[in-house]
Amino acid sequence: MHPSSCDTFVALPPSTDGERIIFGKNSDRPCDEVQEVLCFPARDYEAGEKVECTYIEIEQVAHTYAVVLSRPAWLWGAEMGANEHQVCIGNEAVWGRESADDEEALLGMDLVRLGLERANTAEKAVDVITELLQKYGQGGSCMEDECVFTYHNSFLISDRKEAWLLETSGKYWAAEKVEGACRNISNQYGITTKIDKEHPEMREYARSKGWWDGKSEFNFATVYSFMTTARIEASGSRYCEGKKLLDKSSGRITAETMMDILRDKDSGINMEGMFMTTGSMVSVIPTNPGLPAVHYFTATPDPERSVFKPFVFVKNLHPLKKTSSPSYGPEDPVKKKPRFQSKPDRKHELFVKHEVVAAIIESHQDRGQKIIEGMRQLEKATMQKMEKILSSGVENPDELVDLFSNCVQKEVAVYGLH
After folding, report:
1. How far apart are CA 184 and CA 4, in angstroms?
2. Of 6, 142, 182, 407, which is the active-site residue?
3. For residue 320, is it within any domain?
4. Region entry Disordered: which residue ranges (predicted)?
5. Which backbone phi and psi does 325 adopt, to 5 degrees?
6. Residue 55 belongs to a domain with what CATH number?
């Protein structure tokens, strides 16, 4: 399976409009996979408790932060998400000289969720993920299928003041603090000679394998990538197009800018085909710690035919039932060995309705155009309301406990109007 999925972006002041950080990601996954959006409250745990990730059980920490996640419905982790401290993380599949292990360990998506649950800053998330990587390793199939699909992971991580890029190869890794105004990543290594944190044995391992002579300037991407670039051409072109789209709006990047980038099909960023964009996220994080952040998720495939719906962290949040897939507990085919002997129905309520409307958009041009226009109007009106919150704060938190779910209802109502 060649690199063919995911683009993650972050824009920092002064590239953004106002003192805000804008984070965005398209999750590109198998076209028949359902992506759900869920929130989990903060929790305290007793000493010695465990947490069951996708394939393995690991030690739980004393306290986990509240998180909102967009994830393939069959696994524990997440493709992307945010926590109550406004840390955002998205991961990318990367392939390099080190073979990706199919032995079951932590998935990169598990590491996204663990980083969000355990870190209150972007830099702390780098530390959390790398410590877990060292202790438990990364590996296991990343698709709900008997066909094993494995990869290493890179992560783009942001908070209220900065962003970090973390890239891994097996248990080895390098991290770079983002100094520029924008950064985007695709399915290729991007850290070169600016390395701000690293695995203590990362360079020596590369030297022992003959990938680096131990004398020339160390370039992580050059050393750990494939010798030939043919395998990463698709991700390379998307990376270049994404960078161009960011640069084009530099100084005035907004949530709408990021949504437009994620919807862009000409660049390949909004992916179609056997691998397609199955979920999208855009977050707006004011640098002022006194102001709330707004995290938008589609919970449906193809952002061009979806509504970005807002989520704000407040107390007493209600579960996101309309974007929550059915749970099969211990009977889930993912939990039984041998795994993936069957695929249960994982479609959540919004996915089912969106599937119908996507078929209408595809086959009835005029009617489909009216539905898309209705979606855009809803999105625009919702974002205008969110602008007041982003600028002035939350007056009545109780009004936001069902913010995302209420927007889902309005989206479904738009489907039925035309």
Report:
1. 16
2. 6
3. yes
4. 322-345
5. -80, 160
6. 3.60.60.10
**% residues pLDDT > 70 (the chain):** 96
Nearest to 194 by CA among 221, 157, 215, 160: 221
- Residue 83, C-beta contacts closer than 8 angstroms, at least 6 positions apart: 65, 66, 67, 68, 116, 117, 119, 120, 313
Q: Give φ, ψ of 358 to 5 degrees.
A: -65, -40
Six-digit token string for 39: 């929130």
Provide the whole-model pTM. Answer: 0.96
Is residue 413 in a domain?
A: no
- Per the structure, the count of domains in the chain is 1
Is residue 417 a part of any domain in this protein? Answer: no
| Contact between 285 and 19 (Cβ < 8 Å) | no
Helix (H/G/I), strand (E/B), else coil: 281: strand
Helix spans in 141-232 (H): 202-208, 220-224
- Residue whose tokens read 């010798």: 227
What is the rounded CA–CA span in Å between residue 271 and residue 237?
13
Task: Map residue 311 onto helix, strand or coil.
Answer: strand
**Integer angstrom CA distances of residue 399 from 292, 315, 316, 406:** 14, 11, 11, 11
Q: Has 182 been annotated as catalytic?
A: no
* pLDDT class of 230 with cuts at 50, 70, 90: very low
pLDDT digits (tens, 9 = 90+) for 7-32: 999 999 999 999 999 999 999 999 99
Does residue 375 lie within any of the structural domains?
Answer: no
- What pLDDT shows up at residue 4? 61
pLDDT band at 180 (very low <50, low <70, confident <90, very high): confident
Range of the domain at 321: 7-357
